[in-house]
Specification:
binds cobalt (II) ion, about 400 residues, 2 domains, alpha/beta, eight-stranded parallel β-barrel, binds (2S,3R,4R)-2,3,4,5-tetrahydroxy-N-oxo-pentanamide, Enolase-like, domain 1
Length: about 400
């Protein structure tokens, strides 16, 4: 029987920081797992290096479920983003190994394809309407068949998720990441936002019609009542979903939103386990699960979460920003094509440097992503090149109220 011989933590920063776990078996088979936690990267690297890698040595790499339980139950301290990202990295690396040993892509081990590919949505944004329209057109030209719409708000400066220019080739995301020892600060005003956003969706529907699925991310910036107001005001524009309309820690808060609006709701990119969703799912307070494989304990845990969600007709809409590494994105795609209750997949293309360090086999054609047919996950890591991109701290911005500087959710 092959055993786990080595587990190495690889840190690289090609445009943004990524933490990757590589497990090697005594037969020389390797598996990759993503352990990237945006803005807190080295905490997961230390968790893996100091507390996980040593205890993996000698275990049977085929026992994915048992290893998951060993790391989750065995740690005594449950849940939390650092723990669950570390467990996810081990889990995904073991699925990669199992696929390579079986000679099959991971999606075959998950039951095989349920669809031709995973419908992807891209991120359009603009500080004003002309730049937003340009951004939407650019995404349509790239083949996207569903689009997230974010805009600036009059009276506010830079708003997270909104690109500052639309020059050809410009990126619409936060890559490269904002480097520095402390986060940048942005100003926020919820009332201005609530007045402005419906006018944007009216204009986008007027320009692009009603066929195109449109999404919007509220980044946790509203109270449940404000979220209800926004959901109602967006109903005429037929959104695919409204994401993170209010923080989900208090799951009961979504009852207020749900009872007031039929706009579909998506939540969960900052959640770590099925327990964060328990009320949201059993009371059918959301329509889409936003988890990333990387932040929810891996393929094993997210597959179970989605099976639970399926009982309540809730679908997937996995998180796929550029701070999820190509390994994490590939893991999501294997689940996406196999799950019966797939909804949509977020997709922001990684930088060229990132895709040189992580060589991926997944494809984007005609609006659909496919993980490819290489055994395992289909991603290879270039150590030599990875080592040339050194880690430096990078943070998401923080949000303060324009009125008085109070820290605000986002
Ligand atoms: O803020 O990935 O829906 N996507 C998002 C992302 C998240 C970042 C957090 O690391 O909300 O832009
Ligand atoms: Co989001």
């Amino acid at each position: 029987m092959a055993t786990i011989e080595r587990a190495e933590v690889l840190v690289t920063s090609p445009g943004r920081n990524f933490v990757t776990l590589r497990i090697t078996t005594s037969d020389g088979v390797t598996g990759l797992g993503d352990a990237t936690l945006n803005g807190r990267e080295l905490s997961v690297a230390a968790y893996l290096r100091e507390h996980v890698a040593p205890i993996l040595v000698g275990l049977d790499p085929q026992r994915i479920e048992d290893t998951w339980q060993y790391l989750y139950r065995g740690a005594y301290w449950r849940r939390g983003p650092v723990t669950m990202a570390a467990i996810a990295a081990v889990d995904v690396a073991l699925w990669d190994i199992k696929g390579k040993v079986a000679g099959m892509p991971v999606y075959q081990l998950l039951g095989g394809q349920s669809r031709r590919g995973a419908l992807a949505y891209g991120h359009a944004s603009g500080s004003d309407l002309p730049s937003l329209f340009q951004s939407i057109r650019n995404h349509l030209d790239e083949g996207f068949k569903a689009i997230r719409v974010q805009t600036g708000v009059p009276g506010l400066g830079q708003v997270y998720g909104v690109a500052t220019d639309q020059k050809p080739g410009a990126r619409y995301d936060y890559e490269p990441a904002g480097r520095g020892v402390a986060p940048a600060e942005e100003a926020w005003d919820t009332r201005s936002y609530l007045r402005h956003i419906p006018t944007i969706f009216a204009a986008v529907r007027e320009e692009f019609g009603y066929d195109l699925p449109l999404l919007h991310d509220g980044h946790h910036r509203m109270t449940p009542n404000q979220a209800a107001i926004l959901g109602k005001s967006l109903e005429p524009y037929d959104l695919f979903w409204l994401e993170d309309c209010t923080p989900g820690e208090n799951q009961e808060g979504l009852r207020r939103v749900r009872s007031q609006t039929t706009t579909p709701l998506a939540i969960g990119e900052v959640f770590n386990t099925v327990f964060d969703y328990q009320t949201l799912i059993t009371e059918q307070l959301i329509d889409y699960v936003r988890s990333a494989v990387t932040h929810t304990g891996g393929i094993t845990a997210l597959k179970k979460l989605m099976d639970f969600a399926a009982v309540y007709q809730i679908k997937s809409g996995f998180h796929g920003p550029t701070d999820v590494s190509p390994v994490g994105q590939a893991a999501a795609l294997h689940l996406d094509v196999s799950l019966p209750n797939f909804g949509i997949q977020e997709y922001m293309k990684h930088s060229d440097d990132t895709l040189r360090v992580f060589r991926t086999g997944y494809t984007f054609e005609d609006g659909l992503l496919h993980p490819g047919d290489a055994p395992g996950l289909g991603v290879e890591y270039d150590d030599e090149l990875g080592a040339t991109f050194e880690y430096s701290p990078a943070y998401l911005p923080v949000n303060r109220l324009q009125l008085d500087g109070s820290m605000h959710d986002w």
